[in-house]
Amino acid sequence: MSDSKITRPFDMLNNAINKQVLIQLKENVQIRGKLKAFDVHMNIVIEDAEEIIDGKMKTKYVETLVRGDNIVWITV
Amino acid sequence: MSDSKITRPFDMLNNAINKQVLIQLKENVQIRGKLKAFDVHMNIVIEDAEEIIDGKMKTKYVETLVRGDNIVWITV
Amino acid sequence: MSDSKITRPFDMLNNAINKQVLIQLKENVQIRGKLKAFDVHMNIVIEDAEEIIDGKMKTKYVETLVRGDNIVWITV
Amino acid sequence: MSDSKITRPFDMLNNAINKQVLIQLKENVQIRGKLKAFDVHMNIVIEDAEEIIDGKMKTKYVETLVRGDNIVWITV
Amino acid sequence: MSDSKITRPFDMLNNAINKQVLIQLKENVQIRGKLKAFDVHMNIVIEDAEEIIDGKMKTKYVETLVRGDNIVWITV
Amino acid sequence: MSDSKITRPFDMLNNAINKQVLIQLKENVQIRGKLKAFDVHMNIVIEDAEEIIDGKMKTKYVETLVRGDNIVWITV
Amino acid sequence: MSDSKITRPFDMLNNAINKQVLIQLKENVQIRGKLKAFDVHMNIVIEDAEEIIDGKMKTKYVETLVRGDNIVWITV
After folding, report:
1. Which domains can be identified in chain G, with CATH numbers?
2. Closest partner residue to E9 among D31, D47, D65, by Cβ?
3. pLDDT by residue (tens digit) across D58-72?
4. Cα–Cα distance, D21 to C62 (Å, whole number)
5. CB A37 to CB B11 under 8 A?
6. Percentage of chain C lying above the pLDDT 70 cut
7. Is it the case that chain F and chain A have 3 or more CB pairs lying under 8 Å apart?
8. Which residue among E16, F35, F44, G72 has its CA within the 20 to 30 Å range from the CA of E59?
9. Cα separation of D28 and C26, whole Å?
10. Predicted complex ipTM
11. Which residues of F touch A6 (CB under 8 A)?
12. What is the pLDDT of residue A1?
């Protein structure tokens, strides 16, 4: 994914549209799935989302909107 | 619900009006019910709302306004 | 209360003026009473307010101004 | 105090100038005394202020400026 | 200190310039000393500052800049 | 890295582009890797990122976007 | 350091450029070193920075950018 040049942090999200991402939330919760949309507040829509708590897959959702201010990091 | 194209995160909420949603709040509280309204702060009105604490249904409300900054994620 | 059409979240508060509401604050405190006024920050004045802590009625106040950023949800 | 009409939350503070108020802060601290001044951030000056911790009067101050974002509610 | 009329909260700080103040921070820390300067964010410079933790004087500093958003209250 | 003159804090990040940095997050998590991009909110993209929890290397990621408001400090 | 007149809080930081400062962060962490740069958000660059945790020197860094909103106080 590092073949597209990144000059601003949100370029990384642009490059990751329709690809798998892993979102680290506060309090040891992660959301994994396909990145569908994001905005300047880092609000993010994930398709086929898996909620992972303390490293264990807990629930699957067709579509989840994650509020940006809960996000610690996003990785591709 | 993924048949409507989503290009911005709030499109997902627009598509979910009058449908069942599940809202994850901080501190392991969830609100489930029919999405009636939302605004840019992610303040949300839920009709026939069920409050779920630690996975157990606790109380039902005819109508609940959830303040946006308590929301972790919303799923459809 | 669902007979008035709600298109924005604050419409619910407008419809609830002079009616009983229940406000959930952070840390398991609730305020119950008659909604008298609110503003865009969700600051709210409650008349004949009862403070409920861990489900038990603790104190009554003639009039209480609740600061909006402590509110988790408001129900009617 | 409910004889003055309140249409906006800060009207309640206007009506309470030079009267006794009780301010609930986060973490079970209360400040009681005479309301002398407030601003739009809900910063408040209390004269003859008593600091009450876990329900017990702890200290008295001639004049205290309470920062608005620590306030949970104010009652008259 | 109550002989100067206060109509806005920051008037109290203006009246307290070059006088002793006590600042209550979050998590039971207090800063005591002479008020030298403040701004609209309630950032405050204290000269001959004493840091008091759980009621015990811990350290003295020639000059300390306290960041406004840590302040619970300031008393004179 | 101190051979480039720094007059504003973000100059340090500008000088560190394509170099190794260590980011201290809240709750004893660190991210180490090559700085690729940053913005005014201190959102930061790290390439070949290592997540270090309580001093132990936990996971490696090709590319991670760290949200600025979780950052305590960044060192070079 | 009190020989330069201070009328606004950031004057203290201006006077402290290239001098030793001690920064108190939240959760009992301190950063000590030479102040190189700061901005209006109180983001601060420290040269030859020592990280002090619970009063014990833990790590030294050539250059550290401290994010302003973690700062409780800064002393000279």
Report:
1. 9-75 (2.30.30.100)
2. D65
3. 999 999 999 999 999
4. 11
5. yes
6. 95
7. yes
8. E16
9. 12
10. 0.92
11. 36-37, 45, 63
12. 42
